[in-house]
Specification:
globular, binds 5'-deoxyadenosine, 14 helices, 438 residues, 17 strands, binds iron/sulfur cluster, four-stranded parallel sheet
Length: 438
C-alpha cells in the first residue's frame, strides 16, 4: 500500500510538471514515505532523515517532505518538532492527495507545514499514479482496518475500514486496461471485508467475490490478484471465484501469524488453527494447483517453546510456497505492548532461524516440482540480477528468470515485456525458477 501511495505522489507531482530523478543527489525535493509496521523501519527513517540535514542547510531550494504511517503517530510528530524542526512538509496517510497544494504553499510562504488529518470517511478519487511497471498496476479497493490484532499499529495509522465504490474501482481498472495494463493487484488491509456501496444509491452492497466477478469482465485485463486476506472472513464465494473467474490467479496470500491457538487468541486473530487448516483444505479442494503464501510472527509475548513448535508443525502441514517471517516488534500504543512475558531477543532469533530453515526447505521442494513444466509467464522486465535475462511471474506468482538468448526466433526484450509467453522451467531455486522460451 505504501508503494502505491508513492506511485500516487509521483503521479500528482508529474501533473505539476515535476519528474522523478534517477540519482537522489539531483533531486530538488526529497520525500520520505514511511512505514511503521515494525520498529526497524522507524529506526531507519530517523537515520535517513538525519543525513539530509547538512544538504538542507547548504541548499536553499532543497525541500524535505516526510509522510506515511509514522506521521499518524503523535510521538513521531513530537520528535520531528523537537529534533528535526527544519523538515519542510510533514503530512499523513489521509491527506496524501494534498501534496501539490502543500508544496505550493511551502514554496510561496517559505514556512514549514505540519498537516496531519485524523481518520476520515472521505475517499479521494481520480488520483493519477506513476506506475513502477507498465503492464501491472496496484489498485486500492479499500482503506483502513477494523481488526485490531493486538500487535499491529495499522488500525491506528490507517483508520477504520472504508471501501471504494464498485463503479470507482471499475472505472480505474478500465482506464488502466486502455493504458496497456494486463495484471492488477487489488489492495486492502483486509480485502475479504470489502463492502461496495453502489454510486446510484441502489440497495444492497457488493462483496469482494462480486467485485472480482465484475473485474473479470473487463476487456484487456488478463490477470487479477489481491492482497491481503484475513482468514476470519475468507468466504466460500471467494473460494468459488477461483474456479468461476478465469482471470483470477490461482494464488493466495493468507497470513496465519501463528500456529498455536493460545497465541492466536492473544493476538486477537479471531480464528483457530483448525479453522485455518480447514480453509487451506477447502482452497486446495476447489483449486488443486493453488499456490499459498503466508505471514508469520515469531516471539509474540508469552509464546512458549510448545507454542512455537505448533507454528512449525502448521508450516510443515500446510507446505507453503513461500512465507514472510517476522520477529515480533513492540509497537507503541498497541495492546501487546503491555503484555507480560515479552520474549528475550536471543530466544526470538533462535526460533526465527529454525522457522526460516523450515520455510525455505519447503519453498525449495515446492519449486523443484516445477522442473520440466511449461508455465505461462507475464514478462515484467529485465531480471534484477542479470542484465541479459528477463523476468516475469507465473499465474501462481512464482518469479521466473530466463535468457533472451535462448529464443528460437528473433525477439528483443522490448517485444517481450508485457507479453504472456510459454516458458519451460529448466532450473529451480528456493525463491525463483529459471527457464527458457519455448
Ligand atoms: N511485529 C512483527 N510483525 C508484525 N506484522 C505486523 N505487525 C507486526 C509487529 N508488531 C507483520 C504481520 C503482518 C505483516 C504485514 O507484518 O505478519 O501480516
Ligand atoms: Fe494489522 Fe490485523 Fe489489520 Fe492486518 S488485519 S492490518 S495484522 S490489525
Amino acid at each position: 500500500m505504501n508503494e502505491h501511495d508513492s506511485e500516487i505522489m509521483a503521479g500528482l507531482l508529474n501533473e505539476k510538471g515535476l519528474s522523478r530523478v534517477d540519482d537522489v543527489k539531483d533531486a530538488k525535493i526529497e520525500i520520505l514515505n514511511t512505514c511503521s509496521v515494525r520498529e526497524n523501519a522507524d529506526k531507519r527513517f530517523f537515520g535517513t532523515l538525519g543525513q539530509l540535514k547538512n544538504r538542507h542547510e547548504k541548499e536553499n531550494d532543497f525541500l524535505v517532505c516526510v509522510c506515511g504511517c509514522m506521521m499518524q503517530q503523535q510521538s513521531v510528530i513530537d520528535t520531528l518538532k523537537s529534533k528535526y524542526p527544519w523538515v519542510d512538509i510533514v503530512f499523513g496517510t489521509h491527506n496524501l492527495h494534498t501534496l501539490p497544494e502543500l508544496l505550493e504553499k511551502v514554496t510561496q510562504e517559505k514556512s514549514r507545514i505540519i498537516d496531519i488529518w485524523p481518520d476520515t470517511d472521505v475517499i479521494a478519487e481520480d488520483l493519477p499514479a506513476e506506475r513502477l511497471f507498465k503492464h501491472k498496476a496496484l489498485v486500492n479497493i479499500m482503506f483502513g482496518c477494523n481488526n485490531f490484532c493486538t500487535y499491529c499499529i495499522v488500525p491506528y495509522t490507517r483508520g477504520r475500514e472504508k471501501s471504494r465504490t464498485p463503479e470507482a474501482i471499475i472505472r480505474e481498472i478500465e482506464g488502466l486496461a486502455s493504458d496497456g495494463v494486463k495484471e492488477i493487484m487489488l489492495l486492502g488491509q483486509n480485502v475479504n471485508s470489502y463492502k461496495g456501496i453502489p454510486e446510484d444509491g441502489s440497495l444492497g452492497c457488493m462483496d469482494f467475490a462480486g467485485l472480482i466477478h465484475k473485474i473479470n469482465d473487463i476487456d484487456g485485463i488478463e490477470r487479477i490478484r489481491f492482497m491481503t486476506s484475513h482468514p476470519k472472513d475468507l468466504s466460500d464465494n471467494l473460494i468459488k471465484a477461483f474456479s468461476e473467474c478465469d482471470k483470477l490467479c490461482k494464488n493466495i496470500h493468507l497470513p496465519v501469524q501463528a500456529g498455536s491457538n493460545n497465541v492466536l487468541k492473544r493476538m486477537n486473530r479471531v480464528y483457530t488453527k483448525e479453522h485455518y487448516l480447514d480453509l487451506i483444505d477447502k482452497l486446495r479442494n476447489a483449486v488443486p494447483d493453488i499456490t499459498i503464501s503466508t505471514d508469520i510472527i515469531v516471539g509474540f509475548p508469552g509464546e512458549t517453546e510448545d507454542d512455537f513448535n505448533e507454528t512449525l508443525s502448521l508450516v510443515n502441514e500446510v507446505q507453503y510456497d513461500s512465507a514472510f517471517t517476522f520477529l515480533y516488534s513492540v509497537r507503541h500504543g498497541t495492546p501487546a505492548e503491555k503484555f507480560e512475558d515479552q520474549i528475550p531477543e536471543e530466544v526470538k532469533h533462535e526460533r526465527f532461524n529454525r522457522l526460516v530453515d523450515a520455510v525455505n526447505s519447503i519453498s525449495e521442494k515446492k519449486n523443484a516440482e516445477y522442473l520440466g513444466k511449461i508455465e505461462k509467464v507475464l514478462v515484467e522486465g529485465v531480471s534484477k540480477n542479470n542484465p541479459f535475462a528477463l523476468s516475469g511471474r507465473t499465474d501462481g506468482f512464482k518469479l521466473v528468470n530466463f535468457s533472451t538468448k535462448d529464443t528460437p526466433f528473433e525477439k528483443s526484450a522490448d517485444d517481450l515485456i508485457g507479453k504472456t509467453i510459454d516458458i519451460e522451467i529448466t532450473g529451480t531455486k528456493t525463491f525463483s525458477l529459471e527457464g527458457r522460451i519455448v
